[in-house]
Design a protein that fits this description.
The complex is a heterodimer.
Chain A: H1 3-14, H2 20-32, H3 34-56, H4 76-93, E1 95-96, E2 128-135, E3 140-145
Antiparallel strand pairs in A: 1-2, 2-3
Helix pairs in contact in A: 1-3, 2-3
Chain B: H1 2-29, H2 32-48, H3 50-55, H4 59-77, H5 85-93, H6 98-108, H7 112-122, H8 128-135, H9 139-171
Helix pairs in contact in B: 1-2, 1-4, 2-4, 4-8, 6-9, 8-9
The chains are: A mainly alpha, B mainly alpha.
């Protein structure tokens, strides 16, 4: 996973902005990779400092240019490219095997997590790869099982 | 009856949101008297078009959006007085954590829109989507600006930590 993607996910996770399924994927990823855990911890601390700084700091500045009407569309092409890049990066970087009691589509198999020392059980399950991407146009994450 | 129902919704929203909006205005305008006037203006504007409240995806964000306009209009008429600012600054000055001081310094250098986003998120706990509705910008823009600010802050804090470690090493 690219560092900037990991950082973005860590921020959104800490702020509670990840959809539940994406948060679960990220938590599983962080559990597998110490680097991801460190990043999540570091961003958590940064957010704590930011929150304290904002709450202790009076901001008498006037608001930014107030615009009436609908929001501007923004830099759509850039967000499309970023969303596509994030999808590729996360699709290649996140391999998660899971055991779940929830309903899944026919393309997803229910499997126990595969650990380095669980070689004897590997034949019982399949790694499932998920594609996770942030759609800047919609302002939301999308999650889909990789075919 | 229909009119009464609408007024009841607005009244309930007013009671629920008043503390948050008071905090929003006092941080920008400092004078409690001025803040009371701004609160009244906010809800007067809300009452003029109650149907917009029902159409809003987030009543809270819609209300903050009105408050933002009210605040901007008040600034255009006259900047806020400085005398009530001592209370907040004293509280801020009492903070011993140098990391928070560094964070404040960094934030002071950010564009106004980014500072607004930080304020709405960390002071008022609005979601990305609610902040976008309040400010009239796409949710993706809110997210990217917030992420950028946090990345900058992290780099700044890392430098502060390195400096602190260096000072500690020199002393030992």
């Amino acid at each position: 996973m690219r560092p900037e993607t990991l950082t973005s996910l860590a921020i959104d996770r800490e702020l509670g902005e990840l959809p539940p399924e994406v948060a679960e994927l990220f938590d599983a990823y962080a559990q597998e990779y110490p680097g991801a855990r460190l990043e999540a911890s570091a961003m958590g601390e940064t957010i704590r400092v930011a929150r304290d700084a904002v709450r202790l700091r009076a901001d008498p500045a006037p608001v930014a240019d107030v615009r009436h009407g609908r929001p501007r569309p923004g830099r759509r092409l850039l967000w499309v490219a970023q969303a596509a890049a994030a999808m590729v990066a996360l699709g290649l970087g996140i391999w998660i095997g899971r055991e779940t009691a929830r309903e899944r589509t026919a393309t997803v198999a229910r499997n126990p997590p595969v650990r380095p020392d669980a070689g004897s059980r590997a034949e019982e399950g399949l790694w499932v790869r998920y594609q996770v991407a942030y759609d800047g146009l919609r302002g939301a994450y999308t999650v889909a099982p990789h075919p | 009856m229909d009119t009464i129902g609408k007024s009841g919704d607005v009244a309930r929203l007013y009671e629920e949101s008043r503390p948050a909006l008071f905090g929003y205005f006092i941080r920008r305008h400092r004078s409690e008297q001025a803040v009371e006037d701004l609160l009244q203006e906010t809800f007067l504007r809300l009452l003029r078009r109650p149907e917009r409240l029902r159409q809003a995806r987030s009543p809270r964000a819609y209300l903050f959006g009105i408050a933002r306009h009210v605040s901007a209009d008040a600034w255009r008429r006259a900047p806020p007085p400085a005398e009530d600012g001592v209370r907040l600054e004293t509280l801020a000055a009492a903070t011993p954590d140098p990391r928070i001081s560094a964070a404040r310094e960094m934030m002071d250098g950010l564009p106004i829109l980014q500072r607004e986003i930080l304020d709405l998120r960390f002071q008022h706990d609005l979601s990305y989507e609610e902040i976008g509705e309040t400010l009239g910008v796409p949710t993706g823009t809110v997210r990217s600006r917030l992420h950028h600010a946090l990345r900058m802050l992290r780099e700044r804090l890392a430098r502060e930590d390195a400096l602190a470690e260096g000072s500690h090493t020199d002393e030992t």
